[in-house]
Write a structure and sequence with these properties.
With about 220 residues, the chain is an alpha/beta fold. The chain contains 9 helices and 8 strands. The chain binds cytidine-5'-diphosphate (CDP).
Length: about 220
Amino acid sequence: MTTDVIAIDGPAASGKSTVAAGLAERLRIPYINTGSMYRAITLAAMRRGVSAANCTEAALAPVLERLQLDYVRNDAGHFVLRMDGHETDAALRSAEVAALVSPVAALPNVRAWLRERQRALAAAGRLVMEGRDIGTEIFPDARFKFFLTATPEERARRRPAQSGENFDGATLESVAAAIAERDRIDSTRTVAPLRPAADAVLVDSTGLEVDEVVNLLARKVME
Ligand code: CDP
């Protein structure tokens, strides 16, 4: 049996979110950004005093116990993330959250908590889900799997241009270093590390416009 999910995975700032949203719009199906869920947990943890110095499963357990995180469908049929009943905001894209999200996402209890919720979302029908482990862990039987990459230089250039990103005073070098550190932690963690599924279609988006990548994926899906 295959799950009717289009899985898009890849490293930080590889253009996944833009492409995933574009593909979902093209196919007129909903889109779920799982990175936002990890960022929301990270923000909730920071508000409860968790930092790089005490980022452990024990510190996250009470955060997960109290946190209410839902993707709910709005009138337009889009899924919007709600954190404790409120729509999430630009705080999820801050440099502070970005610096702590990979250590938080490496914790097994955090991943188990989200795995269950992410799998439940597919019950709503066909959708595009984007992250790091959608094709490997969450939906190993997804109907379509894409792994999006781009050179580190291109990814560092794209990042500050992304909507809502908050990189006051950051240089290209510091952005590149932050991205590289996140990728290092994401691909070397024990649970569900970032890697392409054996049956994923690899797409290098370096030098391509968003539309060109969306077209490429849409063609594969409609073939
Ligand atoms: O937008 P960007 O590519 O920078 O990252 P994101 O998709 O917002 O994900 C933020 C972080 O959440 C990643 O660096 C991972 O540590 C974590 N993440 C994960 O572990 N598994 C996922 N399925 C999605 C995100």
